[in-house]
Specification:
mainly alpha; 133 residues
Length: 133
């Protein structure tokens, strides 16, 4: 958890440094920017503190060892489909849906229609074809 806490600590410190700089640069005429940066800094520092506290509680992990081996990590990572095209189609339909949020709701309906087929194809991929179990 050491690396995670350092990353979020950097986010918090960046927000604390940049908020007053942003406020001075805009002559405090735009109040949302510094407030947002201070809030992002607070969030980063809270998460960094949580990761630091959790790291002290659970101790040293194999992930924290720079010379660690993959075999040291416990558990199964999951079963993944070899050469699956369904995530590509689901990603493309998600892009259409998000584009529709900006352009028009009728595009969201088109994207959702195709997303249903992509999601069904991905879920039931192992029930037919070469990889049926």
């Amino acid at each position: 958890m050491k690396v995670e806490s350092i990353v979020f600590l950097l986010v918090g410190v960046f927000g604390l440094i940049m908020a007053p700089i942003y406020g001075i640069a805009t002559e405090w005429q735009e109040p949302v920017g510094p407030v947002g940066l201070f809030l992002a800094a607070g969030l980063g520092l809270m998460v960094a503190f949580y990761f630091w506290l959790t790291g002290k509680r659970i101790g040293y992990r194999p992930d924290d060892n720079p010379l660690g081996e993959i075999a040291e990590q416990e558990g199964q990572y999951g079963e993944f489909a070899p050469h699956s095209w369904w995530p590509l189609w689901l990603g493309l339909t998600s892009a259409i849906i998000f584009m529709g949020l900006a352009v028009g709701w009728w595009i969201v309906a088109i994207g959702a229609f195709f997303a249903v087929f992509a999601l069904i194809g991905w879920v039931f991929e192992f029930y037919k074809g070469a990889h049926a179990s």
